[in-house]
Amino acid sequence: MPLQPIEIQKTRFAQKLRGYDPVEVENFLALVAEDLTQRIAEVDRLTRENRSLAERVAAAEGRERQLQEALLRGKQVSDQIIETSQREAQLLIKEAEITADKLVTQAMERAQEVENRIAELRTRRKELQIKLRGTLELFAQILEADFEEERATASVHTIGRKKA
């Protein structure tokens, strides 16, 4: 189950001696929650945009189907007209083919644009994931360095007893 911003904001940690500053931890959690909220909103926006583009592609395919049906009807009409005017029928067919080719080309170009946009979004998502992983690894290294420094500088002081 994905982590939700509200879960990050509600997270609390037990306080221990020489622990982290609670204000800094809460500020960081708020920052992470805000960033997660923004990313969720971006994913939602991209999902809506993707849905809209898919609907546009479906509409274009519907128009293409209608054009193909219109082309078929045009051919049937041209077959009927052949007896009286073969030249006029050939002209109608040619115009319909040119129009259909243009619409098919436009639909294919639009579909290619949609595919390219999806590929860009996937690439961007991968880049963001890599960036986030790098950031998390950096924080882990910083944390480990802090722990090492703490272990290295920790010492025990004893107080000597006075003799009476």
Question: Based on DSSP secondary structure assignment, what is the total number of beta strands?
Answer: 0
Number of domains: 1
Structural class: mainly alpha
Number of helices: 3
What sort of overall outline do the alpha carbons produce when their principal axes are compared?
rod-shaped
Report Rg. Answer: 34 Å
Strand content: under 5%
Poorly predicted segments: none
Q: Note the quaternary state here.
A: single chain
Distance between the termini: 67 Å
| Biggest beta-sheet profile | none
Helix percentage range: over 70%
Helix-strand pattern, N to C?
HHH
Write down the overall mean pLDDT.
86
Topology:
Blueprint: H1 5-10, H2 22-81, H3 86-153
Summarize the structure.
With 164 residues, the chain is mainly α.
What does the model show?
There is one protein chain. The two termini are 67 Å apart. Helix 2 (22-81) runs antiparallel to helix 3 (86-153). This protein has 164 residues and is mainly alpha-helical. The protein has one domain (5-127). The chain contains three helices and no strands. It has helices spanning 5-10, 22-81, 86-153. It is rod-shaped and about 135 Å long. The mean pLDDT is 86. Helices cover 82% and strands 0% of the residues.
